[in-house]
């Protein structure tokens, strides 16, 4: 007999965040970038109790295979980060811009855990300056929706990626 799924929260503030979770690399590292944004619900209200995870390759396109997600060595890179959202739905990461893995454009794999979801939702964050025409996943996304997967470069050099869980501006989510 199969047990039905249950919603996943809101309990993230207690059990899942950890010190240094959003710092995949130290912000002082020369090639560090800042990725930030907000998580919104279907009505456009910020989600204050979501949890955002990213998984990524390093700057050469190499996917990390060793331990170290929770306790990174100084100057090390694990390719994994986790950040709870603030009261305004905001999150942030200090990381490096990944290199391409295979034939596609560089990206961050993004998971969002939030109240009301039975399972996390998966999406990708692409960078605006990269060529997207050749990316196999983006080629499957309708042109009118692709911008929901591409971060905006801000004046300070950071990348803004807002995530809309539902509604008119809903982010494209991937099924696995």
Can you tell me about this structure?
This protein has one domain: Sandwich (Protocatechuate 3,4-Dioxygenase, subunit A). 5% of the residues lie in helices and 26% in strands. The chain is built from two helices and nine strands. The chain has helices at residues 12-15, 136-140, and strands at 32-40, 51-55, 80-84, 90-96, 107-113, 121-126, 152-153, 159-160, 163-164. Strands 1, 4, 7, 8 and 9 form a five-stranded mixed sheet that branches. Strands 3-2-5-6 form a four-stranded antiparallel sheet, with no helix packed on it. The longest helix has 5 residues, at 136-140. The radius of gyration is 16 Å and the shape is globular. The model has no long low-confidence stretch (mean pLDDT 88).
Can you describe this structure in just a few lines?
This protein is 5% helix and 26% strand. It has 176 residues and is mainly β.
What distinguishing features does this structure have?
about 180 residues; mainly beta; Protocatechuate 3,4-Dioxygenase, subunit A; 5-stranded mixed β-sheet; 4-stranded antiparallel β-sheet; about 5% helix
């Amino acid at each position: 007999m199969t047990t039905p799924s249950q919603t996943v929260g809101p309990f993230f503030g207690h059990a899942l965040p950890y010190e240094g979770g959003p710092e995949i690399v130290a912000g002082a590292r020369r090639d560090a970038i800042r990725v930030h944004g907000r998580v919104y619900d279907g009505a456009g209200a910020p989600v204050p109790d979501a949890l955002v995870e990213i998984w990524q390759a390093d700057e050469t396109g190499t996917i990390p295979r060793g331990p170290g997600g929770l306790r990174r060595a100084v100057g090390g890179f694990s390719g994994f980060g986790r950040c709870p959202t603030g009261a305004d739905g905001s999150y942030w990461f200090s990381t490096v811009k990944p290199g391409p893995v295979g034939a596609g454009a560089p990206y961050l794999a993004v998971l969002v855990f939030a109240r009301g979801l039975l399972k996390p939702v998966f999406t990708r964050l692409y960078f605006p300056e990269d060529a997207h025409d050749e990316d196999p996943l983006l080629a499957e996304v309708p042109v009118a929706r692709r911008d929901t997967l591409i971060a905006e470069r801000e004046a300070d050099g950071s990348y803004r990626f807002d995530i809309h869980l539902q509604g008119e501006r809903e982010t494209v989510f991937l099924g696995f």
